[in-house]
Structure formats: C-alpha cells, structure tokens
Design goal:
The chain has 407 residues and is mostly helical. It has a single domain, classed as Up-down Bundle (Growth Hormone, Chain: A), CATH 1.20.1250. 79% of the residues lie in helices and 0% in strands. Helix 1 (8-30) packs parallel to helix 7, helix 3 runs antiparallel to helix 4 and helix 11 (239-246) packs across helix 12 (253-282). The longest helix is centred in the N-terminal third of the chain and has 33 residues, at 46-78. This is Transporter, major facilitator family protein. One of its GO terms (cellular component) is plasma membrane. It is found in: Cell membrane. Keywords: Cell membrane, Membrane, Transmembrane, Transmembrane helix, Transport.
Length: 407
Amino acid sequence: MAKSKTPQWKKNLWALWFGNFATGAGASMALPFLPLFISEFGNFPKWELTLYSGLAFSSVFLSQAIVSPMWGNLADRTGRKPMLLRASIGMTVSATLCGLAPNVWTLILIRFIQGTFSGYINNAYALMASEVPQEESGHTMGTLTTGNVGGNLIGPIIGGYLSGMFGYRLPFYIFGFMMFLAAVSTWLFVKEDFKPIKKSAKLGIKDAFAGIQKKWVVSAMIVSSMLIMAATMSINPIISLFVRELMHGHGNVAFISGVVAALPGIATILTAPTLGKLGDHIGPEKILLAGLIFSAVVFFPMTFVTTVLMLGILRFLIGIANAALMPITQTVMTLETPASSVSRIFSYNQSAQAVGAVIGPMMASGVAGILDYRYVFLMTTLLVLINLGVVLIAYRKDRGKRIAPID
C-alpha cells in the first residue's frame, strides 16, 4: 500500500482541532450560566452574587497562572503530547466534580484545582508552532483557533437549552465527557517529532528569550494576550445576569444568554482563517492593530444597549475583532520564537492569559456590584485602548532597535 501523502503536521492539526473544539464546547456549555448555577446555592444579594461569580470564574485561571511556567518547562523536556494528555484527563475529572459541587465554596475550590491541570489549547498551539512550516503558520493558527471558537459557538447554545430543561449540573458532566474524548483523540492520532532540550540547558525566563530577535514584540504579544483575555472574559460573570435584566426576568434566560454568548464565536469562526491568511501576506502587525481599534469601537456602545438584540449585534461584531487578536498574537510568537524555547514562551503566554482571565472578571464583578453591569463595557474599552498603546510602543521600539546600528 502506498503511504499517505498527508504530512503529519496536518494530521496533528485536525486531531488538535478536535481537542480544541471539545475544550471550547465543554467549557462554554457550563461557564456562561455559572452565575445562574451559583444563585441556586442561596438567596444572595447582587453584590455577593457577582463576587462569587467572579471568584468562580477566576479561580481556575489563578491556579493556571501559577503552574503554567512549570508545565512549560516540563514540556520542553518531555514533549507537548504528554502535556495535552495531562490537561485533557485532568479536566475530565475536575469538570465532572464541578457538577457534583454541593455549595459555592466547593465549586470555587474545584475550579481552582481544575486550573492546575488545564492548558490543552495552549499546548496545542505550542505543538503546532514547533512543527508547522513557517509559510503556513498564520493560516494554521487561524484554523486551530476555529476549533476552540467553534466549540465556544455551539457550547453555550446547547448548554443553555440543556440548563433550561434539566438544570445547571448536566453541562458540567458533558464537559467532562468531551474532555475524555479529547484525551482519546490526542492519544490515538497526535504524533510529535519531539527533540528534547539538553538536561544541562537553563530554563529561566531570560534563557527562554535569549534566542528571540524581536524581544520587545514577543513581550508585547504576551502582555497583549493578558489584556485581550481580561477584556474578553470580563463580561462572563455578568452576561447571563445582564441578559436577565434586559429581559426583565421573563422567558428562557439561560437559552438566550447562551445565544448571546455564542454570537462572537460565529463571527470569529467565519473570519479567523481569512484574517490569518491576510496576516501572512500583509504582516500580522496591521491585522492586530486594526483588530484592537475595531474592538474599542464595538465595546463602547455596549454601555448603552437597551435590548438583547442590540447586545447580540454588538457581540457578533466583537467576534470579528477577536479573530484579529488572539490568533495573531499566537502567530507572531510562532514566527519569532525558536523551537527550543517555544513551549516556555507559550507557557508564559498562558500564564499571562490566565492573569488576564483573573483580573478581567474580578474587576468586572467589582464594577457591576458597585455601579452597574453597563459600566463593565466602559472598563473593557479602556483595557483595549491600553492594549493598543502597548502594541504600538513595542513595534516602535523594535523598529528603532533595527535602525539604530545604521546611525
């Protein structure tokens, strides 16, 4: 029989795409309705409910921020496939346990433990970054992103329907089952051409950046990832509560919240591969800057929405901006980071994302509890503008560094 002509990196791409899809779908089935689930544990006042929602959202990312560099160092020693299996199996168990939580503090604790095992998507990016041909990197990272985003698209809709029919625990059980499928898919179909770094090699942050030419740019991408996550995740603790307010408590709030939560995913999955290809041709810097500007323009009007329809339209538009943000930062790091340190750089990036995912929801919970849900969108707009400034400064410094020796 003739051997398959499909290169292994493409086979890995589709197996990891499924893993990313399972991770995104499973998580998004449960997370948009976390505040509604928490409200069943007791009759909490608004400030307390938003606080618990913020803690439940953020706890997983807090522990993730702490342990990600350790997992990144280990990945450079052992390979990314073992890290993918560790993440998928760990989330299989922890997601199932979330569905069994008897009270809000147990739920927060399990979510914290879950964060120590998470990291499937970031390791999928790192594995592909180490193996994809450079000329295919933008399109590949965009395609890989559609797996996670596609999951985030379908998850809230299915989760909203199931939650409305059967309660808020069932989506957690389905999340656990989907991560089990991701583990099986990874084990059977992903093959890694891994070359471990020498045991004598240093594994500090300074050493990881040693072979990177554009240090300012890569550092900015890590900071940018943090701010993107802070802006994107900030709405999560309050979206179902805000939708309930806009609907005046009538109708299937869980299902409508699921649709609103899914709308950015529709836009992102439609546009991410195209924007990735465009970035391969005109450069990722232009795509990233345009995405940040568009993001600020869309977030600001969300402050003034009065209907679910208006919120939904703006959420769809923010999905287009998202397609020009996270995939592009991943592409830049893929292009600028040597294979020997790619896992560490991506693990630092994951820690930064996790910090953003802690800061965003906690800030949003505070703003919503003290002021109102609408002010969260003003806060998010400010985060995007700060991000824009960071990226502009980094590219300017990088250009200045390259021009300087000529003087």
